[in-house]
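Notes taken during the Thursday session

The instructor put the following on the board and asked us to keep it in front of us for the whole hour. The protein is Protein DETOXIFICATION. We were told not to look anything up and to reason only from what is written here. First, the residues (543 in total):
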Amino acid sequence: MAATTPAPTRAAAAAALTLSSSPKLSHVSTVPSRRLRTATTRRWRTPRCRGKPAVEGVVDDGEDAYRESEDERKEEEAAVSGRGELGWLRLDGVGMDILSIAAPAVLALAADPIAALVDTAFVGHLGSNELAAVGVSISVFNLVSKLFNVPLLNVTTSFVAEQQAVDDDYSGTGENKLAGQRKFLPAVTTSLALAAGVGLMETAALVFGSGTLMDIIGVPMDSPVRIPAEQFLTFRAYGAPPIVVALAAQGAFRGLMDTKTPLYAVGVGSLVNAILDAIFVFPLGLGVRGAALATVTSEYMIACILLWKLNGKVVIFSGNINGAGVFRYLKSGGLLIGRTIAVLLTMTLSTSLVAREGPIPTAGHQLCLQVWLTISLLNDALALAGQALLATEYTKKNYKQVRTVLYRVLQIGGVTGMALAVILFFGFGSFSSLLTDDQAVLDIAKSGVWFVAISQPINAVAFVVDGLYYGVSDFAYAAYSMFFAGAVSSAFLLVAAPEFGLGGVWAGLVLFMSLRAVAGLWRLGSKGGPWNLILSETELRDN
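Then, after some discussion, the predicted structure tokens were revealed:
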């Protein structure tokens, strides 16, 4: 009897086993049972069933899957541990990640302002009226184009980074055969499709509404600035489609944490712009129209290069556009459009108040503003780096690493702002003389150096906080806080500008940036919205 007892047991055990195969190996797995379900809990369980004979060679899939997931988790934590620790400015792994993204990005971000500076340098030698006209036209162009461009750029960056983090090898089922080695990221195709439509609408609005827009900004019909301003704006309008498409492509590259390719594209485009300016403005005698034509040509070149390079990495054209993805774009983009309206209205109000002072003050203000915006791009590049890294780590629920990125990007931004303040304070006079030789304009510009320099540390915090908002998709607070800052600053401008002239305008702009910075720091300190999880004392993970 003793000799025959094990046989039925082995038969029963064999009946309870099934063979499963995979391309790599064949393994034995148990039929789902109550005992197996309890084996998938976190407590270690032996594969032997209590009170029954041992069955050797049985693989508990649930238990092994848990052990593998635990091993992967430990490897992931080991990979990020030591890359950054909380504390004052350390050039650790996180700091190097931020700088490696920000360094190429700062030049790529500077494409449009650098093109504007090149145009300003050439047009500035035509006369003060032409210089003021270009300044007004650029403000009007930004009023229309950036209304949609900035939201599309930031939303694309966050959404592409999220999809990349969820699955590094993500590809659509129907697209994979067509794509080959390229990835199919729905956020990329959706953003490019929206960009093409938005660009065409912007061109139509600028071409047919240039006169109305000049009236809105406060340039009268009898002003010597009016005719050259409309000429520049009309030609510049045809560059709207490539600008929007290029920004959407840059957002995709940012989400993929590739800021070198956009740098290459805008570097080539900026060089072409400078060469064509030198040919069109003076030798061909096209004046402000030549400056606009040179800029538009360079913008088409930038867009073509970016699309060509992006097409080598991901599928950029597809009929498979997800409706839910479009809705998410529209919802988040709608909030950021409202935010952008608040920014543009405040900046446009300041420009219109300056325009009433006359051509010379307007030209001097334009020099200060262009330098102010161009230098601030260093901080905007840091914001971009923070956004891309935060979106990736936040999606993975690596909250400890998110906190490290947050602190490090704020620290680097603060140091950068202080350095820029010192550089501008001592070097602004020499730099501004390169843009115009009109002494009256230079005198006006130099009077604004205090505001341009003092605001740099404030700008640094404000821009970096913007990137933090976008990295965790805190779009609602980003919009509502900007409404408040814009309303208060606009009210101040309306009171201070008539009384103090350019000084009142610049004081209003500094107030605007200060309110943005304070609102961002308050959001972090209050731990509202997504920051509640990130800034909690205990690191949380979704098990």
